[in-house]
Design a protein that fits this description.
CATH architecture of the largest domain: 3-Layer(aba) Sandwich
CATH superfamily of the largest domain: HAD superfamily/HAD-like
Keywords: Hydrolase
Number of strands: 8
Strand order of the largest sheet: 5-4-1-6-7-8
Oligomer: single chain
Pfam families: Hydrolase
Number of helices: 11
Distance between the termini: 18 Å
Protein name: Haloacid dehalogenase-like hydrolase domain-containing protein 3
Radius of gyration: 19 Å
Largest sheet: 6 strands, parallel
Strand content: 5-15%
GO molecular function, one term: hydrolase activity
Number of domains: 2
Family: Belongs to the HAD-like hydrolase superfamily.
Order of helices and strands: EEHHHHEHEHEHHEHEHEH
Structural class: alpha/beta
CATH class of the largest domain: Alpha Beta
Helix content: 40-55%
CATH topology of the largest domain: Rossmann fold
């Protein structure tokens, strides 16, 4: 008879898995600009933000730490470039907006806990699972989780800024396993990104679940993942864990 798999550790992504900003980035940026006397279309800022964010992440990955930047400098530059791309040429006018946005995104009030997140975390703990965070986030995350009442669920919070490596780098997952003193086969990761979360964790031998949300999955991604690893919402994790733990130990 096959030995029953027993998970000991669940690691969690945060943004768009457990929480997200109350407003889209473009609306948040436009609101702060308006408060400083600048009128900029939210749609233009939204488009500009994601273009700048992707370019900045490629040029200066993981907040530019290896280039001598701090995460705060990295984010202030993202804001300045976003407004420039959206048509605001006066960097001095944008500087106080950038500073305010950095502070606002440090504030738990800017974020919302996603439906089912807290109940799912509590239920996982009731099952005896140890929980931890593995997130591509900066030093503000700990305070945000405390303010939202989620920090108490986790043994530790490992950000890419603190670790020095962003997902899907295997070293950040290995560091989480080292901190927890758990073998990969006794751990699973939960996140919303196929390349960063799902594939990143499985590459080192962890189990993994992909939070798909309401939007249709890319057909290629969907075809490459067992159906029981796809979570339409967080409460679907609990039956998925039952299925995994009743299956023969394998990836």
């Amino acid at each position: 008879m096959a030995r029953r798999l027993q998970l000991r550790l669940l690691t969690w992504d945060v943004k768009d898995t457990l929480l997200r900003p109350h407003q889209p980035m473009g609306e948040e940026y436009a609101t702060k600009a308006r408060a400083h006397g600048l009128e900029v279309e939210a749609a233009a800022l939204e488009q500009a933000f994601w273009q700048v964010y992707r370019a900045q992440s490629l040029s200066f990955p993981n907040y530019g730490l290896s280039h001598g930047l701090t995460s705060r400098q990295w984010w202030l530059d993202v804001v300045l470039q976003t407004f420039h791309r959206a048509g605001v040429q006066d960097a001095r006018a944008v500087a106080p907006i950038a500073d305010q946005l950095y502070k606002d995104f440090s504030n738990p009030c800017t974020w919302q806990v996603l439906q089912g997140a807290e109940a799912t975390l509590r239920e996982c703990q009731k099952r005896g699972l140890r929980l931890a965070v593995v997130s591509n986030f900066d030093r503000r995350l700990e305070g945000i989780l405390v303010g939202l009442g989620l920090r108490e669920h986790f043994e530790f919070v490992l950000t890419s800024e603190a670790a020095g490596w962003p997902k899907p780098d295997p070293r950040i997952f290995r560091e989480a396993l080292r901190l927890a003193q758990v073998e990969p086969a006794a751990a699973a990761h939960v996140g919303d990104s196929y390349p960063l979360d799902y594939k990143g964790a499985r590459a080192i031998g962890m189990h993994s679940f992909l939070v798909a949300g309401p939007e249709p999955l890319d057909p290629e991604v969907k075809d490459s993942i067992p159906q029981e690893h796809i979570l339409p919402s967080l409460p679907h994790l609990l039956p998925a864990l039952d299925h995994l733990e009743s299956s023969p130990p394998q990836l």
